[in-house]
Amino acid sequence: MRYSDAGVSIDLADGVKSRIGRIVRSTFTPRVLTAPGLFGAAFAGVGRGEVLVASCDGVGTKLTVAGMVGRHDTVGADLVNHSVNDILTLGARPLFFLDYIAASRLDPAVMTAVVGGLARACRSVGCALIGGETAIMPGWFSGLDYDLVGFIVGSVAKRRLIRPDRLVPGDVAIGLPSSGLHTNGYSLARKVLFERAGYGVEERLPGLRLPLGRELLRPHRCYLPLVHQHLHRVKALAHITGGGFYDNIARLLPAECSCIIRRSSWRPGAIFRLIQQAGDVPDFEMYRTFNMGIGMVLFAAPGQVDAITNSIPGARVVGRLVRGTFGVSVV
Amino acid sequence: MRYSDAGVSIDLADGVKSRIGRIVRSTFTPRVLTAPGLFGAAFAGVGRGEVLVASCDGVGTKLTVAGMVGRHDTVGADLVNHSVNDILTLGARPLFFLDYIAASRLDPAVMTAVVGGLARACRSVGCALIGGETAIMPGWFSGLDYDLVGFIVGSVAKRRLIRPDRLVPGDVAIGLPSSGLHTNGYSLARKVLFERAGYGVEERLPGLRLPLGRELLRPHRCYLPLVHQHLHRVKALAHITGGGFYDNIARLLPAECSCIIRRSSWRPGAIFRLIQQAGDVPDFEMYRTFNMGIGMVLFAAPGQVDAITNSIPGARVVGRLVRGTFGVSVV
């Protein structure tokens, strides 16, 4: 028996690796010190007084939609932008990124599209895609072709590290518009739209500009360019991902401090209304599963609000911190 | 419909997260600046003159064996040790680690065992487990329960960064013993042992001290404690993982420099002989799939060899670099 009998072709993998090597080199910054293909990647260290900020995420079952539509160049942007937003909540800017792709079999065209998407999103924020792992595991997945995971490291001056412990009752919650579902809630969205309602990915539905599949694949918005010049005005940032408004705001709240979000302050996009109607999903469930059109919530003292809302398109006050221990309430 | 109807329970996930939070805190070093549970984790930066070294890896289908045996506390050590070895090849010591666990459903006992294993392995090398992601994706996997991926960042003084470009013909290859298959070749091993030979995980086989399943689960050896005091004597290190001797040594070789590995210089352990016999696997295939009992190869100038082999148990000369363009030859 040979390894290829077990479904793993090292030769094919080597071919893809070299193509991927060329793509990732296009993201390299002068601080990348090693060529692709070693056991690890070296990156010129940050200065004293800088803090590293790291985060890890996957794309989740949005990958299933990518497979249904047959389009694999957008999920890379989802992953990179999700990760950039995560470390942005601590005030950090991206330095480098690593990806992990696991698949039952190696499809060179899909792999190249995925890594091309990762690289494009990395380049647009000056982040070097310095490494990664492609794991071919025969028989590993059912119902989809691959998993995609990313790790990001960024940095911020220690005195600018954003710690939510400065939040106090009276601070204002400012919502920034999302571009769609971003990267969360796809298990529920797929069940409602494809299983219960029986829609197909090519379906044209009222209120949606694109066919349903493409609408669901809209890439996760990157908030770095919108937010970075306001970081000194902001006390905390909640990235509205898995767990929706409840979990993602709750993890920032100091003791005795709760948050009221007023949903009348914005109108969720058509895709969210469609899911809620088609699935008969209760409001509470919607706001703890989806971003409902608000992908990032900034918290700032009242005196800082105008400067932020006047300069970020679509930014608006969506709630307020109050004294209390109820946590997060969406009213 | 609710999110839990789609197979995702956020409440259960929150319970596990808090238990995992307590476990990961046990790995925290004074340089960890944030509590678990934020969107990212902050780590005190490295000094000027230090270089960051990052790597990413998965456990692969060794996880399937863990599922067959019903033991989930060893795969964490596999992942951490594999990662520590990868960055060790550039001379780096670990700073922090993040993990990604994807599962079709959340099994709190399995999850706690996995993270407990990660944390133990991290503590033993002074590495902080600062973050991670648990993704519940219903219907995601067939034939196994979860995937486990890790991401490590370490550092090394810039002048001590190991770059293999100093290798020259005449340099000596020194092999360090592995503890078993480590984390590679499990697709082939499982096919040969369980499908073709029909063995069970409880099987007691000649030459193996433990039942077959436990033998296959032996944790990946961590070479940091053995090697770190010799890093100044070493020109390059090859971690013998996926691709075996061929791919992992080839990626280090400068142009005009090739490597001859003499397999008569050590005897592969019983597990490798068992796989080769049961699967009728050609020699070439064995040495490019498995580590064959040598998990790390150090390359050093001849004058440094005795100092290394005299102080690392089991270390022995296994080959040599020669002028040539054939790459790697196992003779």
From TrEMBL, chains A, B:
<dbReference type="GO" id="GO:0005829">
    <property type="term" value="C:cytosol"/>
</dbReference>
<dbReference type="InterPro" id="IPR036921">
    <property type="entry name" value="PurM-like_N_sf"/>
</dbReference>
<dbReference type="Pfam" id="PF02769">
    <property type="entry name" value="AIRS_C"/>
</dbReference>
<keyword id="KW-0067">ATP-binding</keyword>
<dbReference type="InterPro" id="IPR016188">
    <property type="entry name" value="PurM-like_N"/>
</dbReference>
<feature type="domain" description="PurM-like C-terminal">
    <location>
        <begin position="169"/>
        <end position="324"/>
    </location>
</feature>
<keyword id="KW-0547">Nucleotide-binding</keyword>
<protein>
    <recommendedName>
        <fullName>Phosphoribosylformylglycinamidine cyclo-ligase</fullName>
        <ecNumber>6.3.3.1</ecNumber>
    </recommendedName>
</protein>
<dbReference type="GO" id="GO:0004637">
    <property type="term" value="F:phosphoribosylamine-glycine ligase activity"/>
</dbReference>
<dbReference type="InterPro" id="IPR010918">
    <property type="entry name" value="PurM-like_C_dom"/>
</dbReference>
<feature type="domain" description="PurM-like N-terminal">
    <location>
        <begin position="45"/>
        <end position="155"/>
    </location>
</feature>
<dbReference type="InterPro" id="IPR036676">
    <property type="entry name" value="PurM-like_C_sf"/>
</dbReference>
<dbReference type="InterPro" id="IPR004733">
    <property type="entry name" value="PurM_cligase"/>
</dbReference>
<comment type="pathway">
    <text>Purine metabolism; IMP biosynthesis via de novo pathway; 5-amino-1-(5-phospho-D-ribosyl)imidazole from N(2)-formyl-N(1)-(5-phospho-D-ribosyl)glycinamide: step 2/2.</text>
</comment>
<keyword id="KW-0436">Ligase</keyword>
<keyword id="KW-0658">Purine biosynthesis</keyword>
<comment type="similarity">
    <text>Belongs to the AIR synthase family.</text>
</comment>
<dbReference type="GO" id="GO:0046084">
    <property type="term" value="P:adenine biosynthetic process"/>
</dbReference>
<keyword id="KW-0963">Cytoplasm</keyword>
<dbReference type="GO" id="GO:0005524">
    <property type="term" value="F:ATP binding"/>
</dbReference>
<dbReference type="GO" id="GO:0006189">
    <property type="term" value="P:'de novo' IMP biosynthetic process"/>
</dbReference>
<dbReference type="GO" id="GO:0004641">
    <property type="term" value="F:phosphoribosylformylglycinamidine cyclo-ligase activity"/>
</dbReference>
<dbReference type="Pfam" id="PF00586">
    <property type="entry name" value="AIRS"/>
</dbReference>
